[in-house]
Amino acid sequence: MTMPDELIDDLRRSQTDLARLIEAVVRGRLPYVVVPVQAVRSWERREPQHWAKVSGWLSDQNVALVQV
User: Model-level pTM?
Assistant: First the structure.
């Protein structure tokens, strides 16, 4: 399992706002995050490896991803 700080450092190198998503989950100890479907599609298309890390980390933390 990747530690949040390592994951955030890695994500800051990407062209996405995925680091902010992880920071919000960690800071708020959120049980779920609400994300627009278009954002997820964009992450999957533009940064598939980073999105895979983020979605895996969310799953490992039992944080549900709610797409709207």
Answer: 0.86
